[in-house]
Amino acid sequence: MSEILPVIYLVRHGETAWSLTGQHTGLTDLPLTERGVRNARRLGERLAGLAFAKVFTSPLQRAARTCELAGFRAAAQVDADLVEWNYGKYEGLRTVEIHAQRPDWQLFRDGCPGGESPDQVGARADHVVSRVRDVQGDVLIFSSGHFLRMLAARWFGLEPAAGRFFMLNTASVSVLGYENNLSQPVIRLWNDNRHVHD
């Protein structure tokens, strides 16, 4: 009889005003837009019928509200490690504005002045990976884009800079899991937003 291998669902929060404009939103605690609210509800429809041994959410309202609107508030545990990258002096800036000052800047390689380095965010992701691997059963996580990209990189033991390869849209669902056994981590689904409507 084969072992039932757990899966980890990753949900990026719904749209905010700054995700719409491309501004780096780290610890600024923005609410969802109206479209963000609608798509968070659609996430609930997308995840309906699935059972999770644990549900975790970032304490930031964009993730916590997405969790609530998707119908998982009662089961959710707030995990401070799931907050978005602290962008420091780059908070609220768009990449084009940062590149005007530092043309070769890359978040996952360089981090942010006055904020977190890739290694610091990677260490938070490692804590999350360690916790979810101890759960007996499937896990659902609500967080933010850059942190979830780092989490994916660390799921495979890749260097923090590898987070740049994992693009995520708002209100998307991704699934990490295993192939044949717990020593073979894989991506089962990535950046699925077919439930999202403009």
Written description of the protein model:
- By secondary structure, the protein is of the alpha/beta class.
- It has helices at 17-21, 34-47, 61-69, 95-101, 107-110, 118-133, 145-155; strands at residues 8-12, 54-57, 76-78, 139-143, 173-178, 185-192.
- Strands 3-2-4-1-5-6 form a 6-stranded mixed β-sheet.
- Strand 5 (173-178) and strand 6 (185-192) form a beta hairpin.
- It is globular, with a radius of gyration of 16 Å.
- It starts with 7 loop residues before the first strand and ends in a 6-residue tail after the last strand.
Give a quick set of tags describing it.
globular; single chain; 7 helices; six-stranded mixed sheet; 16% strand; 198 residues; alpha/beta
Beta-strand proportion: 15-25%
- Cα end-to-end separation: 45 Å
Number of alpha- plus pi-helical segments: 7
- Catalogue the unreliable spans: none
Strands of the widest sheet, in order across it, are 3-2-4-1-5-6
Q: Biggest sheet, open or closed, and with what strands and sense?
A: 6 strands, mixed
Total beta strands? 6
Helix content: 25-40%
Q: Write the H/E string, N to C.
A: EHHEHEHHHEHEE
Helix-strand category: alpha/beta
